[in-house]
């Protein structure tokens, strides 16, 4: 085992960040970053014309679970909607959110029609014996996009 006295504290944990270590890590990130950006851009090319909005009802606070719900629903919507018309909008309306429950619905409109929003059904997910977590919010997002059955051609 190699000893690094300048990186060890009394308990053997890292005590401080070394500049040379930071340089090595940044070089590795720099080589991986173009691949990650290109991959994410290629996977969202079909839904790039989609505008996604996230709205909170009065009394809903912008917590980490709110941000997680917004990003999860947006990801599911972009995954399921192949080629929406340019300027089309999907809006997540979070109606209730606390530690144990989330309730919301999707609304959408075509960029070509420019009319009012079509509203999907409201669904709710709750857990009585634990708090909301990433897995339950991801399931809420999948279920919400699935039951909303967004079809811009029917507008």
Number of helices: 3
Radius of gyration: 22 Å
The number of strands is: 5
Structural class of the secondary structure composition?
alpha+beta
Structure description:
With 155 residues, the protein is α+β, with helices and mostly antiparallel strands. It has three helices and five strands; from the N terminus they run αβαββββα. The chain has helices at 19-43, 64-80, 134-148, and strands at residues 51-56, 89-97, 101-109, 118-119, 123-126. Strand 1 (51-56), helix 2 and strand 2 (89-97) form a beta-alpha-beta unit. Helix 2 crosses helix 3 (134-148). The longest helix has 25 residues, at 19-43.
List its salient traits.
155 residues; alpha+beta; five-stranded mixed sheet; 19% strand; elongated
Briefly, what is this?
The chain is of the alpha+beta class and 155 residues long.
Q: Which helices and strands, and how do they pair?
A:
Elements: H1 19-43, E1 51-56, H2 64-80, E2 89-97, E3 101-109, E4 118-119, E5 123-126, H3 134-148
Parallel strand pairs: 1-2
Antiparallel strand pairs: 2-3, 3-4, 3-5
Helix pairs in contact: 2-3
